[in-house]
């Protein structure tokens, strides 16, 4: 059995804990490897080495750090197919989707090549007689990232890129479900010129996460995953005096107005609801048509499109629409939620529970599932399902549809489909959600904007990537300096002397 360890001080090393987690091939259900789960002692030792390596890296000028990022971009592009294959084989997502996962992470590394510009401070000349004032952005020291299974390339890259470009050392604790790609990325960073020890990839579970939260050397933690864990890490991390940002779960609503192009809306819902088997924090999981004719027209258009969806393993080629769920436990949970929807009175229009694929009977597949007449009190509405399940909530007015999106505890993303600019503008202004799409179903901001949800989808003050990430991974220091001689007679800066 293949054993996956850690990346410590520039080398792959085996774990010492004797504890492991299974890594599955989700298409067959077989265990394909086991990943070591680090102890607190392993984590603490890696952090101590990282702190030592950070001293020199933090003092390296930003342009040199940016050049490492430039080379990293080139190497990721060189190895794109290899990375995507490893990603698909552990996560289960289709090959084009896996490449998209790497690509959206790569774009943040491209953003990080602008580190010299992004780290420029502020300067006030002559704040008083002979007094200048300037603000610096300095690295924090050692920062850590804890990431989820659903984007095993993108989210580690969103975390490590800005942290390293700002001059920090970084401890990455990736998901134990699909640990190979983060280790491959660490090796590429070494090839790009990152000094050993500056990035440590420690695989593990709650024990290593708790060790991160309680380690006094770690100054900041960036987390992405489910809301209960986000809240836990945010609470305990802040109590330990760390800078913490935690991004949690989602339940993204798409409002379809009576004037929307229903074919366009149905196409958008198929991609946003079922793509990546619904295992995206920006997936649309609730369709909110306004008016009976809109709802009937939408369901009429969704059903034939759902029937055409091709579900299969990533190895079956590029025309597969989505693959299996990540684990058997995820499969059972999603099927259980579908059953609860039926029991609680929703209309099950398409049922994916009994989906079977010849040759892959033991894989973690769920067929595309569609519910109509879903109401607020149902578990399929309240909970994040994280599977290929779309719920339809029927409403009579725009205000009622808006209230659904606003009242839900999650606030990651939302979308409105309409031809009316006034409605779209009102929606974007009023809705209490972080990322908004107008006739765009998955409004993921590009690398130079920031990404983050509101309400129970995001905890902390600053978002991921974009300028916020450079603020998160640096500390501001403001220097006031006074040179008693002030402005000398005849100096080029003595404007009075020039008059
Ligand atoms: P998860 O919360 O189970 O795991 C995330 C990380 O936390 C992993 O590294 C895991 O090892 C660790 N972890 C798990 N249980 C823990 C515990 N009890 N104590 C300490 N650490 C623990 O999430 P997941 O299933 O890997 O990912 C899916 C979730 O992530 C979904 O809820 C999804 O919406 C969310 N997500 C959010 C965003 C966003 O930007 N808001 C992006 C991607 C995914």
UniProtKB/TrEMBL annotation:
<keyword id="KW-0560">Oxidoreductase</keyword>
<feature type="domain" description="Aldehyde dehydrogenase">
    <location>
        <begin position="15"/>
        <end position="479"/>
    </location>
</feature>
<keyword id="KW-0520">NAD</keyword>
<dbReference type="InterPro" id="IPR016163">
    <property type="entry name" value="Ald_DH_C"/>
</dbReference>
<dbReference type="GO" id="GO:0006574">
    <property type="term" value="P:L-valine catabolic process"/>
</dbReference>
<dbReference type="InterPro" id="IPR016162">
    <property type="entry name" value="Ald_DH_N"/>
</dbReference>
<protein>
    <recommendedName>
        <fullName>methylmalonate-semialdehyde dehydrogenase (CoA acylating)</fullName>
        <ecNumber>1.2.1.27</ecNumber>
    </recommendedName>
</protein>
<dbReference type="InterPro" id="IPR010061">
    <property type="entry name" value="MeMal-semiAld_DH"/>
</dbReference>
<dbReference type="InterPro" id="IPR015590">
    <property type="entry name" value="Aldehyde_DH_dom"/>
</dbReference>
<dbReference type="InterPro" id="IPR016160">
    <property type="entry name" value="Ald_DH_CS_CYS"/>
</dbReference>
<dbReference type="GO" id="GO:0006210">
    <property type="term" value="P:thymine catabolic process"/>
</dbReference>
<dbReference type="Pfam" id="PF00171">
    <property type="entry name" value="Aldedh"/>
</dbReference>
<dbReference type="GO" id="GO:0004491">
    <property type="term" value="F:methylmalonate-semialdehyde dehydrogenase (acylating, NAD) activity"/>
</dbReference>
<dbReference type="InterPro" id="IPR016161">
    <property type="entry name" value="Ald_DH/histidinol_DH"/>
</dbReference>
């Amino acid at each position: 059995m293949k054993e996956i360890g850690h990346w410590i001080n520039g080398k792959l090393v085996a774990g010492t804990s004797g504890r492991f987690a299974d890594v599955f091939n989700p298409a067959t259900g077989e265990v394909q490897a086991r990943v070591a789960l680090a102890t607190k002692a392993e984590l603490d030792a890696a952090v101590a080495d990282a702190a030592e390596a950070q001293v020199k890296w933090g003092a390296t000028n930003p342009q040199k750090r940016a050049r490492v990022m430039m080379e990293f971009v080139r190497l990721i592009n060189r190895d794109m197919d290899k990375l995507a294959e490893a990603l698909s084989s552990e996560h289960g997502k289709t090959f084009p989707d896996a490449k998209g996962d790497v690509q959206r992470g790569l774009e943040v590394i491209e953003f990080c090549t602008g580190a010299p510009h992004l780290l420029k401070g502020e300067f006030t000349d002559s704040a008083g007689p002979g007094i200048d004032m300037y603000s610096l952005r300095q690295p924090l020291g050692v920062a850590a990232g804890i990431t989820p299974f659903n984007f095993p390339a993108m989210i580690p890259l969103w975390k490590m890129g800005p942290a390293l470009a700002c001059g920090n050392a970084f401890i990455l604790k990736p998901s134990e479900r699909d640990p190979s790609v983060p280790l491959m990325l660490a090796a590429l960073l070494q090839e790009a010129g990152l000094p050993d020890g500056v990035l440590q990839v420690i695989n593990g579970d709650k024990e290593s996460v708790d060790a991160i939260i309680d380690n006094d050397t770690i100054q900041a933690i960036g987390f992405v995953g489910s809301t209960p864990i986000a809240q836990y890490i945010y609470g305990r991390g802040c109590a330990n005096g760390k800078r913490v940002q935690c991004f949690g779960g989602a339940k993204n609503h798409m409002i379809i107005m009576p004037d929307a192009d229903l074919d366009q809306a149905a196409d958008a819902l198929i991609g946003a609801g079922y793509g990546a088997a619904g295992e995206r924090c920006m997936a649309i999981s609730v369709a909110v048509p306004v008016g009976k004719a809109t709802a009937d027209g939408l369901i009429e258009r969704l059903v034939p499109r759902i029937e055409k969806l091709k579900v299969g393993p990533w190895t079956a080629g590029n025309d597969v629409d989505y693959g299996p769920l990540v684990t058997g436990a995820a499969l059972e949970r999603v099927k259980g939620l579908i059953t609860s929807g039926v029991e609680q009175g929703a209309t099950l229009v398409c049922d994916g529970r009994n989906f079977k694929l010849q040759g892959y009977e033991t894989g973690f597949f769920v067929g595309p599932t569609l519910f109509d007449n879903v109401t607020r009190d149902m578990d399929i509405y309240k909970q994040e399902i994280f599977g290929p399940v779309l719920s339809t909530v029927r409403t009579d007015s725009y205000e009622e549809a808006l209230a659904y999106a606003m009242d839900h505890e999650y606030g990651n993303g939302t979308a409105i489909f309409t031809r009316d600019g006034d409605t779209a503008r009102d929606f974007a202004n009023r809705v209490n959600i972080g990322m908004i799409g107008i006739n765009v179903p998955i409004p993921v901001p590009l690398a130079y904007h920031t990404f983050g949800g509101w309400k129970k989808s995001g905890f902390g003050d600053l978002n991921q990537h974009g300028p916020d990430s450079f603020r998160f991974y640096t500390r501001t220091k403001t220097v006031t300096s006074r040179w008693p001689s002030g402005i000398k007679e005849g100096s080029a800066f003595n404007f009075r002397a020039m008059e």
